[in-house]
Every structure is written in structure tokens, then in C-alpha cells.
Amino acid sequence: MCYFVDKVDAIEYYAEEEARLRNQVDHERAAALRKPLGIAFVTLISVEAAQKIYDDHKPSYKCSNNPPSSSVSCHLKPHYWVIQFAPSPKDIYW
Q1: DSSP letter for each residue of the chain
Q2: Nearest one of 86, 69, 87 to 78, comparing CA atoms
Q3: Which among 56, 63, 53 has a CA at the least distance from the CA of 85?
Q4: Which of 24, 78, 80, 88 ranks highest by number of CB atoms within 10 Å?
Q5: Rounded to an integer, what distance in angstroms lies between the CA atom of residue 15 and that of residue 58?
Q6: Is residue 49 in a domain?
């Protein structure tokens, strides 16, 4: 059994496919921005600075963590933060 397929100009086909995929990416990006993840990636000046923040926010054996207060603590609610060291850059999908 033979099937006949209409010929399509490759440039036209891939231009339409590119437009369709760009539209899909824009739609997915807009949807993702409507649902924030509630996470942040923070870069610090040194390993020591990162260790200080980690130590200030890690839960203690007392079942509470009391990070240092600041003038914006009531807005940022640092007592709810879960602080972790970042994974290796090779383990991040950029």
C-alpha cells in the first residue's frame, strides 16, 4: 500500500514549528511565574559567610531555631527558612 504525502517547504515548516514552540515556551513561562516556588538561590562572599548563615538557621536540639533578628525579620520570617548548602554546579540543570 502506498501513501502519498504532500511536499512541504522545509524553511516554512521549521519556521512554523519554531513559532509554535516559542508560543508554548512563553505560555509555560507565564504559568510558572504565576506559581512561585518560594525558594531563593543566594550567593555569598565566602564559605565562612555561608557557614555563619547556615549555623544561624539550622535547627538545634532544642527544636527551635532563633536566627538573628533585623528590622525586616517580621516580613521575611527567617524562623521558617530551611537553609541548605547549594548542590555542586554540575548537579544543577541550568
Answers
A1: ---------HHHHHHHHHHHHHHHHHHHHHHHHHS---------S-HHHHHHHHHHHS--TTS---PPP-TTHHHH-GGG----PPPPGGGS--
A2: 69
A3: 53
A4: 78
A5: 52
A6: yes
Range of the domain at 83: 10-91
Cα separation, 83 vs 59, whole angstroms = 10
Q: Model-level pTM?
A: 0.44
Residue 5 belongs to some domain of the structure: no
Cell of 65: 531555631
Distances (CA, A) of 3 to 6, 7, 10, 67: 10, 12, 20, 70
- How many domains would you assign to the chain? 1
Q: 83 near 54, Cβ under 8 Å?
A: yes
**pLDDT by residue (tens digit) across 35-68?**
878 778 888 888 888 888 888 777 665 555 566 6
